[in-house]
Write a structure and sequence with these properties.
Layout: H1 13-63, H2 69-72, E1 97-99, E2 115-120, E3 126-132, E4 138-146
Parallel strand pairs: 1-2
Antiparallel strand pairs: 2-3, 3-4
């Protein structure tokens, strides 16, 4: 006689759907973390650019008695800078460093990846340097100063 037994080989459709759903959730979490890390890396490049601007202005001030703001934003030493958000390099400095018309304050916005320079005659000629990160927001808790 023949016996009609079900052989249990393979997976059921429900088991496969559960596994696919778990993989999808993990993939979404990974993508979100990846994009966040990309933004942090781009902001780190903007911070490095701001540091380079600070050193360049500080070095120039050692050799000069006065440095107009327009000149500070176009120093030739800044040509090696790179805007990580737009991909523009420093061959056109305005893509990377811009003179600010007003003192930077929390909540101000600018162009993504650009370093802003503000010169304040009232504070002994100090230069304030800030970086603009994602969506043009000022990078929090990162403001540099250069002065004679």
């Amino acid at each position: 006689m023949y016996s009609f037994r079900k052989s249990k080989k393979g997976f059921t459709l429900i088991e496969l759907m559960v596994v696919v759903a778990i993989i999808a959730v993990l993939a979404l979490l990974g993508l979100r973390m990846y994009s966040t890390q990309q933004d942090k890396a781009k902001e780190a490049i903007v911070k490095a650019n701001a540091g380079s601007v600070q050193v360049t202005i500080q070095t120039t001030l050692v050799d000069t008695t006065a440095l107009p703001l327009a000149d500070a934003a176009t120093l030739t030493d800044l040509e090696a800078l790179h805007n990580p958000f737009s991909g523009n390099d420093g061959s056109t400095i305005t893509h990377v460093v811009v003179p600010l018309t007003a003192a930077p304050a929390t909540g101000d916005t600018g162009t993504e990846g650009v370093v802003g320079v503000w010169h304040d005659d009232a504070s002994g000629g100090a230069y304030t340097i800030v970086g603009f990160g994602k969506a043009g927001a000022i990078i929090e808790n990162y403001e540099l100063t250069a002065q004679r």
